[in-house]
Amino acid sequence: MVWFLIALPLLAAALAFSINSVAARVRLLPATATLHLAGLLWSLRGWDHLAPGTWLGLDALGGWTLLVISVLFLFCAWYAPAYLALRPDRDNRVFVASFLAFLGLATLLSAARHPGLVWVAMETTTLATAPLIYFNHNRRSIEATWKYLIIGSVGIALALLGTLFLAYSAHMGGLEEPLFFSSLMQGAGQLSRPWLRAGFVLALVGYGTKMGLAPLHTWKPDAYGESPGVIGALLAGGVTSCAFLALLRFYAIVAAAGEIQFARELMVGMGLLSMLWAAVFMVRQLDIRRLLAYSSVEHMGILAFGIGIGGRAARFALFHLAANALVKGVLFMSAGNINRSYASKRLPYVRGAIRRTPVSGWLFFLGFLAITGTPPFAPFISEFNIAATALARPYLWTGVAFLVLLGGIFLAMSDTVVQVVFGTPPPDRVRTPYRDTLATTAPLVLALALSMTMGLWLPGSLTEMIRSAATLVEGHP
């Protein structure tokens, strides 16, 4: 079944690139996304029976991450045809093919059981998503694409070096190839500690660059700001989730080797730095998309912080992976609708969105409340439990800092969001023909509803998967 989940979107991408019918090409997006999610749900029935010594397979950690990506991709795929219909000036052949290829490569990364294969999959997701950033074909988009490729390539090169250091630490410890994650976890006590530590630092910097942890995030404001809203959603909830998973694979090996305190201190430090950096650059931010980019930096920091605190916080960091992906999808796609109505993404040109695009305006505002931790949405559950765990442990001062930064970010975001949603539309600003439609808003409504449902109730099977994934992350295979 794993091979099917990888092959389905890759074959659909090849088909999309080869056919000339625009209508048929666009229909491949929701059809493939729906089949992929259905197949994934079927295959996850056996996530706790993964055979050791396999190159591909979905354990609790990989299965949960892929489920998050597949659900987000489904909402994006049902939104994308309506968006592409509004852009008849652009050939969508490369867009659709790259969009589908990302899903296949993200599946490969999630199922990979070898650190080298994880690295290859992470690099190919970068190559698949780069053409999507360039979709608008203007000076700013090509600059954003090159920045994404160059900075991402530096990060992925450092991640490769970290992978080599990990392999050398295994060689020094007498472990034999192939170095599957299962064998590395079981033989973690034999690994050379200096090489393992150095490898983790390089992996943190390398995959942290792909996540967008500060100060490694410099590609994010341009890539998110200049790409279509649906692509911003895919980057913020999909690509970053892939990088987070790759980093967690390293973290689990370090934890199994007895070096978890070393890794925790780095993760907590990077997490708080990312949140602080985001808070500073959100203040009086006039570009809506850049505001959301810095929000993504913040939430990558929350993920790293939660994993670093450990215990219950690690479980809710994994839960936050899904909470962030869903709400970010709503924010980026609703922001795209609003920007299209005003033909701008900057204040003071974009004000009073609730009057011009009422559905998108309300979705954007509710998404803002959700992403800043307002109940009953899912991010509130994860942020509350991460903070509570930090405050109850020896990390008291970090818990206080975490809460202070959350409050500061809420105030910084609200200054811009309130003006965008409830301000007075500028009378001299030309109104474009765009209006909210069912096709451009229904996927967003469903995604926000799912986020609210997760904040109130989660199936027991998914709760158990998250618990098992957190146990694995903390070094217990």
What does this protein look like?
This protein is mainly α and 477 residues long. Helices cover 77% and strands 0% of the residues. It is globular, with a radius of gyration of 21 Å.
Describe the structure in brief:
The protein is an all-alpha fold and 477 residues long.
Radius of gyration, in Å, reads 21 Å
- The total count of strands amounts to 0
Give the terminus-to-terminus CA distance.
23 Å
Q: Poorly predicted ranges (pLDDT <50, ≥5 residues)?
A: none
Order of helices and strands: HHHHHHHHHHHHHHHHHHH
Measured as a percent range, the helix fraction is: over 70%
Percent strand = under 5%
- Based on Cα principal axes, name the global outline: globular
Write the layout of secondary structure elements.
Layout: H1 2-18, H2 22-43, H3 60-85, H4 93-111, H5 115-133, H6 139-172, H7 181-186, H8 193-211, H9 220-226, H10 229-256, H11 260-282, H12 288-309, H13 312-342, H14 353-356, H15 358-371, H16 378-391, H17 396-422, H18 438-456, H19 460-473
Helix pairs in contact: 1-2, 1-4, 2-3, 2-4, 3-4, 3-10, 3-13, 3-18, 3-19, 4-5, 5-6, 5-10, 6-8, 6-9, 8-10, 8-11, 9-12, 10-12, 10-13, 11-12, 11-17, 12-13, 12-16, 12-17, 13-15, 13-16, 13-18, 13-19, 15-17, 15-18, 16-17, 16-18
